[in-house]
Prior knowledge:
Layout: E1 11-20, E2 23-33, E3 38-42, H1 49-56, E4 64-69, H2 79-82, E5 89-92, H3 96-99, H4 106-116, H5 122-135, H6 152-164, E6 170-174, H7 182-197, E7 201-206, H8 209-215, E8 218-221, H9 226-229
Parallel strand pairs: 3-7, 3-8, 5-6, 6-7
Antiparallel strand pairs: 1-2, 1-4
Amino acid sequence: MWEPTPSGSALQVEGLGVQRGERWILRDLSFEVAPGEALGIVGTSGAGKTTLAWAILGLLPLSAGSIHLMGLPWSSMDEAQRRPHRPLMQAVFQDPTASLPPHRTGWQILEEPLAIHHRGDERQRRDAAILMAERVKFPLAALEQKPHQWSNGLAQRLCLGRALMLTPRLLVLDEPLSALDPTLGSHLLKLLLDLRDGGTTLLFISHQISSVRRLCDRQILIAPDQAAQG
Length: 230
């Protein structure tokens, strides 16, 4: 099994490229995220922001370049090698309802990551779910329900709670506020600010410049014509 090596970066992306057919979606993209840093990735729709998120998460193969996670050669590892290290990096996506299993209750959704990675017994997992629901301000009574019974705001809070159950060192956030109205988006942004202030490393992908400026220590721009420019 791969072991993390000492690294000054939580995430290191070097010369990343993703190609579909003859078209480059992303090309020659390089950046680093320091431990505890919140980095904003901004760009208009179609610029490749979600493609970048999927590539970093290891859900999409690279056509060029490399990704290192906490010193691990993430992009060159196969899924069997990545699996023990997946708790290091978790994600929250734009559409909370589509991101949640529709047949499971809130309790099951929060407890499942712990069960998959063999953390704690049933009682310990239930206690951890209670603490997480309180942390992300999700009503305990609603944990008896299933995703279709929740508002977008509640569903996205549970998505965040699920991502945090494994205590990740890096949280990838792909347009997590876009499906929410301004009030609900503001509430979730406050939770993310608390995470940042608590030392969680954040990669915040968004087209909402005001949210990026409020949350992130710095930002980089992905331009729609970046692939053509190389």
